[in-house]
DNA sequence: CTGAAAGCGCTAACAG
DNA sequence: CTGTTAGCGCTTTCAG
């Protein structure tokens, strides 16, 4: 910038003004402006946005913290949000917390304090919003996506997990199933996972069944694959074999399919199956698996739009309701 | 920082020194150091790394540009690289270029110029390395992953696509297949895609077959799903029906499976199938699909280690060979 | 119409 | 042992 000012014999101020489109506003002659712009292009001048951010406090960086970027649900989320952010002139920094609460908080700090992100979308694995409270109190834009925390309703955009799970379970029961097992993640404080369980239980009761603890299995997050496989095996060999399984997320569902195949059990003849969160694998299985599809694209769009509104102060977080999107049951041939 | 210096009646320099662990080096009394550290913690002081970067030129940010973060291959790559980077004290900024060369270059500029990334790993969709040349000439650390560009051999870490495709094709031929079709992406300048095609052709010739253009179909990137579906349909209804299909990537493979199912064709009875780049869907299909597994984790590890070496100057890019990793044929039941 | 000057928060010579 | 000083690259009053 200095060099371009020098070559043109003007001050750095002028160059800055012109390059930021404030030339007219400050009444700088068209000719001068033209010259500045041309030389800048010729020299391939790239403003150092670090310096700019330091000065202005604006970074045009947005942050997204997901729990596992390798999960298709979150990678699609990242893709969608990145697309929109880019179109709006923001860069998106995507980070993966790997289901580690401490890392999640560190990532948030880094994004906020170090990178000067102007807003952050987070799919939080925390138990409560306490670490986010100071930021929110200072009106720093934070939007919670997919997983709700107590007390952040107005800042959340989520899927109606309860309703989705209820629909799925009802579908199973309406197909004549009497012993619907639930394989879920636990013990879990995640709103998404809990709501799915509540939906499952509600459907059971609504249809006149009892909630049977023997038919509910919790696999731990850290050992999801093995726990799930063990659970399926145990269930299928128990005295009280289920005639249907409701898998609470895509990873669980995948393992259920594989384990069932390994055990020589046929879907849906031996046992029916519905999975929460549709992934492509469920389409190409045979039989293709009925699943609860989550509208990730919509979810993502709502989240970033909300964030942008907060950044532009056209939305005061706390006043609006939680945005809740409806999932859709995609009926295939596993029931 | 000013406030903590003031409260303790010392200079900002001293605070900076202590907080950066240079207290001993500058012979600052233990007591003073202790006081500084405690107060910093009490005030929850967070250094502004923007300012630090501006001053030192070090950002501890690394960049990763992938062509599509929603593709499992790349999201797993992102996860692995992020993990390692984090452990080494670096943050990773992941960006998705969406197969758009212009966006890729912009992303690179942004990462380098604006965020001051200390090194960048890129899975490039460009035809040549020209836009990267100025950076590389200045010894800016850049590592090319998965896709090779002419002239960047020493800075690349790739899969042996040629060999993987050759093995797959040979496997098909050894299983008695006479008319092996290739469904690939094109026209493409991507080294990965081209090498797969070359491997396919080499295997054919090695086994005494001719390369038959009617058995090679190129689907365009922008319209991959539809083109692939159309290609499969056309092939299966042609006069020269293939008895095996080699799908050049995971997305193509997925559509082949679905289309075949829609056409009522059975794998492997009507037509055998091998896909390049294994994804979980191929495991749970029925029959499970034989695939060429790419060692993404290894690939990612090599790439970031190379980058780190370049950053620490313990590796002069140009002298080392291209790191080439061998893919593995996972035999399932689709052949 | 244009430029001087101050300062964002931090670090690193260089003097004491 | 500690503080002064200068400045990273940019923006923005404010006074010509």
Name some characteristics of this structure.
six-stranded parallel beta sheet; homodimer; 12 strands; elongated; alpha/beta; 335 residues; DNA-binding
Structure description:
The structure is a homodimer of 335-residue chains. Chain A contains 13 helices and twelve strands. Chain A is an alpha/beta fold and 335 residues long. In chain A, the strands form two sheets. A six-stranded parallel beta sheet of chain A has the order 2-1-3-4-5-11, with helices on both faces. In chain A, helix 7 links the parallel strand 3 and strand 4. In chain A, helix 5 packs across helix 13 and helix 8 runs parallel beside helix 9. The longest helix of chain A is centred in the first third of the chain and has 16 residues. The radius of gyration of chain A is 26 Å and the shape is elongated. Chain A starts with a helix and ends in a 5-residue tail after the last strand. The mean pLDDT of chain A is 92. At the A-B interface, helix 4, helix 5, strand 2, helix 6 and helix 11 of A face helix 4, helix 5, strand 2, helix 6 and helix 11 of B. Chain A binds a DNA duplex (16 and 16 nucleotides) through helix 2 and helix 4.
């Amino acid at each position: 910038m200095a060099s371009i000012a020098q070559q043109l014999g003007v001050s750095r101020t002028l160059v800055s003004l012109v390059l930021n489109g404030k030339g007219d506003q400050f009444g700088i002659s068209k000719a001068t402006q033209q010259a500045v712009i041309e030389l800048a292009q010729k020299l391939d001048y790239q403003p150092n946005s670090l310096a700019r951010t330091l000065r202005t406090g604006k970074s045009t960086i947005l942050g997204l913290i997901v729990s596992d970027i390798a999960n298709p649900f979150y990678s699609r989320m990242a893709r969608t949000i990145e697309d929109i952010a880019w179109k709006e002139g923001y860069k998106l920094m995507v980070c993966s917390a790997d289901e580690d609460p401490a890392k999640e908080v560190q990532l948030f700090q880094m994004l906020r304090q170090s990178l000067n992100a102007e807003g952050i979308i987070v799919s939080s694995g925390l138990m409560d919003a306490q670490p986010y409270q100071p930021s929110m109190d200072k009106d720093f834009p934070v939007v919670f996506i997919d997983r709700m925390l107590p007390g952040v309703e107005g800042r959340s955009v989520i899927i109606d997990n309860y309703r989705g799970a209820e629909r799925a379970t009802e579908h199973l029961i309406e197909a004549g199933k009497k012993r619907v097992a639930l394989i879920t993640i636990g013990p879990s404080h995640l709103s998404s996972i809990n709501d799915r369980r509540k939906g499952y239980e509600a459907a059971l009761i609504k249809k006149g069944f009892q909630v049977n603890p023997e038919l509910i299995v919790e696999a731990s997050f850290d050992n999801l694959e093995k726990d799930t496989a063990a659970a399926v095996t145990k269930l299928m060999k128990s005295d009280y074999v289920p005639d249907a399984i409701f898998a609470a997320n895509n990873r669980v569902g995948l393992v259920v399919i594989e384990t069932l195949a390994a055990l020589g059990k046929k879907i849906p003849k031996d046992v029916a199956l519905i999975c929460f969160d549709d992934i492509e694998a469920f389409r190409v299985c045979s039989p293709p698996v009925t699943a609860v599809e989550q509208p990730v694209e919509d979810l993502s769009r709502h989240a970033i739009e909300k964030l942008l509104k907060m950044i532009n102060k056209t939305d005061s977080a706390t006043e609006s309701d939680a945005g809740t999107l409806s999932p859709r049951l995609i009926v295939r041939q596993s029931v």
